[in-house]
Write the structure tokens for this entry.
Amino acid sequence: MSSTHTKSATIEQHIDIEGHVGIDEHIGRDLEYSAAYRWQHWIRAFSIVALIATGFYIAVPVITPAATNEPTNFLYALFRTWHIIIGFVFISAILLKSYLFIFAKKHVNERAALKDMINPIVWAKQIGFYLLINKHPKLKGVYNPMQFMAYLLFYLMAFSLIITGLILYVHVYHEGLGAFLYEPMRSVEVMLGGLAFVRELHHMLMWGVILFILIHIYIAVYNAIFIREGTIDAIISGVKWHKRV
Amino acid sequence: MQSNSLFEKMSSRLDELSILPKLDEAVSIPQLIEEKGFSRREFMGWAAAMTSMLMLPANFTPLVAKAAELADRLPLVWLHMAECTGCSESLLRSSSPSIDSLIFDYISLEYHETIMAASGWQAEQNLEHAMEKYKGKYILMVEGGIPQGLSDFYLTVGAHGKTGEKHAKEAAENAAAIFAIGTCSSFGGVQAAAPNPTNAQPLSKITNKTVINVPGCPPSESNIVGTLVHFILYGTLPALDIYNRPKWAYGLRIHDACERRGRFDAGEFVQQFGDEGAKKGFCLYKVGCKGPYTFNNCSKQKFNQGTSWPIQSGHGCMGCSEPNFWDTMGIVHEPLANRLYHTTFGGLGSDATADKIGLGLLTVTAVAIAAHAAISVLKNPEV
Ligand code: HEM
Ligand code: SF4
Ligand code: SF4
């Protein structure tokens, strides 16, 4: 695995299984995720949470002001505005990350995961690991094949959410970007079977993302506990700890 | 500049039309309107409203008035397919007929299955006669979905027992313009709803000629007559949206021009019919209004001579002018998000909403995760 990683130090502090703190030349610290990667991960994570919260409200507005003749604070419009603003943050994060994955030099370790993806032996070993049958396979990239599949599915959902979201958007704002996107988005709308279904699809995709989040967090915590390479820390600090062989 | 040349083009088109023979030499439309008690002033008022509806500048009003007066130069053939005649009724059965319905009523005399005097063999002959005599000149308006192919026998019409599909095909062949009036002939409508037992299809699937859709269940009288006046004025087909609907009528959502939109944005919703919010005219989104997904101009044109329209009267939009609205708009009195899925997971998810199914899946996943975690703790995974 180390071949694709930047070695930042040869001798590192090491906490071994028995809990002894010491220096161990067999453990190395590798840059796993670039700064841009980590920033967009957290921006995206927070935007998704906010989009889900505002999305549920848009679907069925549960909080409503009492029926009075007092001036109002335009609650629903506010929810929608925030949903759309954060929606564009989400779009930017997804586009940035897609760019990094395809082109960025520092992200070769991500692209290397493709090789594991098409290797049936790594697949079998990975499934075996989660079924507690065998050891974790050695990987060429930063993602194992199951993880890569899950992320692929996530991006499929993310892009579908973006397309359906933009279709809904062009009907809310008719000028500017809305006007620019209007005709192409309407063609997609017709292909999908009308605005009502677009809205439904947007809603169903949200549930797909919620399921993804649950599994994603579980596996991350699982790896942090059992593999002990600093998996969760890596998405904050950027580095992971790997055994040197 | 542009409107000047348009004005001239329309004027010369109307001049051409005015030489054509009238439906009945003894009657003229201005005369008819006057007889029914409308003053010239009222007629010009109607023409001004029609002008603005067609998105033309106000100085085009005399042209629109003239176009209406010349409506009897273009013979109209109106066919009924699988439908409820609601679209015709929307125009014809009003206690105080509007100018729209008067004109329509009169020009429909050539062949309209509901209002013509002839019946049986005679009716059949009239249709053939009209199609022959006005070949390439008549306007065809079709109401209703059309059972197609092996199911065509579900609609058999008239003395010769011809299928609706055959009738429609033949009539479309030599028409100058074809309009599908109402959601059934535009998109299939209620009889095309799943599982569509009679294989009812929209008119556009029956003929390969261009069909202008004027959907609605029913479309308003002004959308029907407006489409006609538009054709008389321009002689060409109007700008169409992606579903072949005239843009001047179906360019915006109900929601975009709804009088309750302020309430929507304020988050003020009717929670239940008859509550305090309903009395105050709050937004009907939570009691099932489908205005956000529906393209039509009901809020501007209204129904029954501009008296009212569904949302004004306190009921949400049902989405009637959209394709497959019976299947896609969910429950009438619930927001779209609460629609029920009937067939998910081989019936396990029957009659559940997307949220309920989502929560179910989430629970199953959580249980699986808990089990996997417990086993992993007992039997440490190999690293
Ligand atoms: C993780 C991403 C997202 C989630 C979970 C999400 C969730 C939702 C949900 C649940 C709804 C309500 C649908 C319903 O009525 O059933 C909604 C509506 C909407 N979403 Fe999203 N959304 C996401 C991303 C986006 C993006 C990227 C955009 C694009 C700007 C967007 C724009 C919209 C718009 C315009 C509406 C409709 C608002 C209205 O018509 O009043 N969404 N979203
Ligand atoms: S009543 Fe319907 S169309 Fe009007 S604002 Fe509310 S949701 Fe929109
Ligand atoms: S308000 Fe909606 S359901 Fe009612 S007639 Fe208009 S488009 Fe159809």
About this structure: The domain at 252-379 of chain B is CATH 4.10.480.10 (Cytochrome-c3 Hydrogenase; Chain A, domain 2). Chain B has a mean pLDDT of 88.
